[in-house]
Specification:
By secondary structure, the protein is α+β, with helices and mostly antiparallel strands. It has 2 domains: about 90 residues, no CATH class; about 60 residues, DNA Binding (I), subunit A (Orthogonal Bundle), CATH 1.10.30. It is about 25% helix and about 25% strand. It is built from 7 helices and 6 strands. The strands form 2 sheets. It has a 4-stranded mixed beta sheet with strand order 2-1-4-3, sandwiched between helices. It has a two-stranded antiparallel sheet with strand order 5-6.
Length: about 180
């Protein structure tokens, strides 16, 4: 139960648009306060008639302004999907470091296009060298986070939960596909 209460829950706007991911604890708080309804659940009953949510939908529409993503370690790791941009292996956030593609000693700055997720082994190998000097190559050219990055992150996180997929994947016309279950 302890791990389940911290599990990820997809939050939908009243229009069924995916807007964020919250812990099950926060999602249940919104349901109990009658601000949201459980759209999909895990099947695990936590109280008679109340199931552990997987997807909740807000009852009232919330305007979500387009936000400029803040440059942070966490956001860089999310953008790079916890994959070392040199050896292409997946790591937990605690096993990753940030690498300056152009080292600070050579004029590199803290920016979206100069920082990437890097494992400790690759970071030591690259050290204070440029890509050319180290002989290393990047998996992807880093880009600033955008609204598309945020949606991509939601989609990639949703790949692990089948109940999220109908709310995160879009058809060829760009419309969101979902099945209203009437829950």
């Amino acid at each position: 139960m302890r791990n389940a209460i911290n599990s990820a829950v997809l939050v939908l706007n009243s229009s069924f648009e995916a807007i964020s991911i919250r812990s099950a604890r926060r999602a249940l708080t919104l349901v109990v306060k009658d601000r949201a309804v459980i759209q999909e659940h895990t099947g695990q009953e936590i109280y008679p008639g109340i199931y552990m949510p997987s997807v909740i939908r807000l009852k009232e529409y919330r305007y979500i302004p387009v936000r400029i993503q803040i440059l942070s370690r966490k956001n860089i790791f999310l953008r790079d999907r916890n994959i070392c941009q040199y050896c292409e292996k997946h790591f937990s956030a605690s096993e990753l470091t940030l690498d300056h593609i152009v080292p600070k000693s050579k004029g590199g700055r803290d920016s979206w296009d100069n920082l990437c997720a890097c494992c400790q082994k690759c970071n030591k190998k690259k050290a204070d060298k440029s890509l050319e000097e180290s002989g290393m190559k990047l998996l992807h050219k880093p880009r600033p986070a955008s609204i598309h990055t945020s949606r991509f992150i939601l989609k990639s996180m949703g790949e692990e939960d089948e109940k999220w997929k109908p709310y995160l994947y879009f058809n060829s016309t760009g419309e969101q596909r979902f099945q209203h279950t009437g829950n």
